[in-house]
Automatic annotation (TrEMBL):
The keyword Thylakoid does not apply. Pfam families: HTH_IclR, IclR_C. Keywords: DNA-binding, Transcription, Transcription regulation. Residues 68-259 form the IclR-ED domain. Residues 14-74 form the HTH iclR-type domain. PANTHER family: HELIX-TURN-HELIX TRANSCRIPTIONAL REGULATOR, ICLR FAMILY, HTH-TYPE TRANSCRIPTIONAL REPRESSOR ALLR. This is IclR family transcriptional regulator.
């Protein structure tokens, strides 16, 4: 028997919608055959097939004609595009937290998410100061570049991280971008142990960043929260204070994530 889905707010969820989301989340981990979707979404094959057929009709799912496997479709990328462009609004319940972090640090606050081998800025609150560093809403960079990228890599499952690193071309953006795979692995282990990542001039010379992870309800990293600013203004003492503020803010946001 398929389990009932309970809402954390106590309101009864729409069962068919909850099941469709479970199917999309299963496909978010990669192409799946019907039996695999059925198992991962905890649905009968008949129910899984019916949902997949509906999602195909709406462009949310594609089916490979050669092996019959399913994968996310173009409509999903349209939704992602809306998030990245800011048209969909901020996807986390964190507006006040981000504003507070920006006000307390007086530096730019950003949120990045992983997109394949890149990381993309989906939210940015610029520093109120005249001289400031900004990433740019929708801007992307290699996943290995800067503190945000290191956070998104450090908390991946180790096998997934290694598979991703093996496919990366560690191209430099500045003279200080980490391009040695072993050194990057060492730094990622430190990030996972410490809970924050730091970078200086890896994407833009003279820019300093400190980042912390935001996790979803299942404990998987979904975003990197960062404070960015000019190196001349962010002293070592201020950087230590910023690291604590970023980590505490990321933990508060994580604490409000619904279970998956």
């Amino acid at each position: 028997m398929e389990p009932e889905v309970e809402s954390p707010s106590g309101a009864a969820p729409v069962r068919s919608v909850a099941r469709a989301v479970d199917v999309l989340l299963a496909l978010g981990r990669g192409p799946r055959r019907l039996a695999e979707v059925s198992e991962e979404a905890v649905l009968s094959k008949t129910t899984a097939y019916r949902i997949l057929s509906t999602l195909r009709h709406k462009g949310m799912v594609l089916q490979d004609e050669t092996d019959g496997s399913y994968r996310l479709g173009p409509a999903c990328f349209h939704v992602m595009s809306c998030v990245v462009s800011g048209h969909a609004g901020f996807p986390f319940d964190a507006g006040r937290d981000l504003e507070s972090l920006r006000d307390r640090t007086q530096e730019t606050v950003t949120v990045h998410v992983r997109a394949g081998l890149s990381r993309i800025c989906i939210q940015e609150l610029p520093s109120p100061q005249t001289i400031r560093y900004t990433a740019g809403l929708g801007a992307s960079a290699g996943i290995h570049v800067g503190s945000a990228g290191k956070v998104l890599l450090a908390y991946l499952d180790r096998a997934e991280r290694e598979a991703l690193l093996s496919s990366l071309e560690l191209r430099p953006m500045t003279a200080t971008t980490v391009t040695d795979a072993d050194e990057l692995r060492r730094q990622l282990d430190e990030v996972a142990e410490r809970g924050t990542a730091f970078s200086t001039g890896e994407r833009v010379a003279g820019a300093v960043g400190v980042s912390a992870p935001v996790f979803d309800g299942s404990g998987a990293v979904i975003a990197a929260l960062s404070v960015l600013g000019p190196e001349a203004r962010i002293t070592p003492d201020r950087l230590t204070d910023f690291a604590q503020l970023v980590r505490e803010t990321a933990e508060r946001i994580t604490g409000r994530m619904p279970p998956i």
